[in-house]
Queue: 4 jobs
Job 1
Amino acid sequence: MREFGELESAIMDVVWEAEHPLQVRDVRERLHYSRTVAYTTVMTVMDILHRKNVLQRNKNGRAWRYWPTESRTEHTARVMNEVLGTSGDPPGTLLHLVHMFSLEDRAWLHDVLHRELCQ
C-alpha cells in the first residue's frame, strides 16, 4: 500500500527533513526528483497533500508556509497500523513481519516490548 505518489513522496521527504515550515519555492529548490518540476505543479501537489491532512499551512504574505502534521516515523507507524488492520489476520501478519527482521532488529524489538510491557 502506497499512500503517496512519486512526486508526493519526494515533496514529503523535503518537508520532513526541514527544521521549519517551508514555502512552495523552498520545497521546489530542495526537491530531489527525476525531472524538473514546475512551481505550479509543486504548489498543486502540496495543496493536495494539505487536503489529505498530511501537511498543515498558514499564510506568510502572499505565499503559504507548509509543515507536516506528523513526523515521518509517526506517519509510517499510522500507515502500518492501517495496513495491519486490513490484513484479515493482524497477529499472523505481524508475525510474518517479525520473521523478516534481522537478528539485531528482533533483539531491539524484544527490548522495546519488554520495557513497554513491564512499566
Note: The chain has two domains: 6-68, 88-119.
Job 2
Amino acid sequence: MTFFEQMLLGHFIGDYILQNKWMAYRKGTNYLPCLTHCLLYTLAVCSFSPFNIWWVLVVFLSHFFIDKFSLANKWLKLINGRSLTDFLAFGHMEISDNLMQANKENYRILRGSFTGIVYTAVDNTMHILLMVLGAYYLRLL
C-alpha cells in the first residue's frame, strides 16, 4: 500500500468511523470534542503510516485548524455556496405559494441532503490537501 493510500485509509477511519455525534456537533464550538476527535483522527491516520513526529504534528494541527474553525463552511459561504450551518439554522425555504406543502418539504430534504454532500466533499478535500502538502514537504510522498 502506498503512503497516500495509507493516509486515505486512516483519514476515512478517523473522520467517519471514530467520530461520534458528540464530536461532530460540538467540535466547532467547544475545544474538548475537537481535541478528542483530532487525537483519535491523528491516531488513525498515523497508525497506517510510518512514524514521524513531524507527520503526527502535520496531521493533528491541520485537522484541528480545519475542524475547530469550520473552514469548509467558511469556504462555502465565501463562494456563496451551500452553507451547512445556514441550512441547519434556516432550513426552511421560501417557495412560491402555488406549490403544495409536500413539494416544499421534499425540496427542503433534497436541499439539506445536497448541502451535506457538498460540505463533506469540501471538508474532505481540505483535509487531504493539507496532509498531502505536509507529506510532500516532509518528503514522505
Note: Residues 84 and 116 are 6 Å apart (CA to CA).
Job 3
Amino acid sequence: MKSRAYADPYIAGVGIGLVLLAAYAVAGRGLGASGAFSTVVAAGTVAVRGHGAAASPAVAPYLSGGILHDWLVLELCGVALGGFLSAWLAGRFHFAVERGPHLGVRGRVAASVCGGVLMGIGAKFARGCTSGQALTGGALLSAGSWLFIAGCFATAYLLSPVARRLWR
C-alpha cells in the first residue's frame, strides 16, 4: 500500500482545537496525558504493595473509581488506537526506530527514555504535561501556561543545534 501525504498542519490544528472543545462539551475537562500515567502508576502501586498503599497521600488522589474510570486513561487509549489506525490507513504502519546516521538504535532509545523521564518529572513539577499546559491551559488563557509555552519554544530553539547534529 502506498503511503499518503501528511495532513495539512493548519487543518490538523483546527482539528485539535475542535477535539479540545468536544472534550469540554462531553467530559467537562480539557486534554492532558500525565494524569493518566499517574493513575496507572497508582493502581500498579496498590497492586504490588497492597491496599495499604491506597491510603498514601501520593497515591490516593489517583484512585477514584478505578483505572478505566479516569477520563485521561480513556483519552490516551483513544490516542494510541487512533494513532495506529491513522498510520495503518495512511500506509505508514511499520516498526522502526527513527534516528540519524550518527546515532545507533540503543542511543536513540536511551535518549528517548531519558527525555520521557525528564518530561514526566517536569510534568509533575509543573502540575501538568505539555498537552495539558499548552493546549488546555493555553485555551483557557492561563498566564502560567503561556509562560510554559514560551519556555518550551525557547528551549527547543536553543537545543535544536544539538539535535540536528545527531540527525545529520
Note: Helices lie at 9-27, 34-49, 71-89, 105-126, 130-139, 143-167.
Job 4
Amino acid sequence: MKYFPFLIAALMVLSSCGNQQVTQESFDEIPWMTLTEVDQISKKKPRMVLVDVYTPWCGPCKMMNNSTFKDPELVDYIGKNYHAVKFNAEGPDAITFNGKEYANPKFRSDLPKNRRNQMHQFTGTLGVRGYPTIVIFDTELNKVNQVVGYRTAEQLLEFLKGMEG
C-alpha cells in the first residue's frame, strides 16, 4: 500500500503523455521534386540534394526505379535526409537551378519517348557520361559527388551514408 501513491502518480504521468502527439516523419515513397522546386525550397529548408539523372530508354534506370527506389529503408533515408529529384537527362523542360537557367534547345519532339534524344544543357553541366547517374549536392547546391550506373538499395544507402559528416 505504501507504493500506491507512486503508482497513481506514474499512471497520471503516462496518461498525460498519451495526449501529446509525437510524430516522426516516415516515408512510404520518395518525395520526388523537380530541380526548379528544389531551387526554391532549398532557401527555406536547406538539405542535401540527390538527383537521379535518367533517360526513358535506359534499362538500368528502369531497374533502379522498380527495385532500388522502392526499398523501404532507402526510401525512408532519402525522404528524411535529402531533397530528391528525378531529372530526365534528355528531356525538353527548361529548369532553373542554383539561380541559372538550363534548357534543351535541340530536343526533338518527333522522336518516340523511349528513344535517345538530345542531351539537356544541365546534363552537360553536371558532366554526366552514363545513365543512371546519382548526383549529390550540398545544402548550398554545390555538386559534391556522383556515382554512375545501377546500384542496389544497399549500395546506394552505403554511398549516401558515406556523404554524411
Note: The CA atoms of residues 2 and 8 lie 11 Å apart.
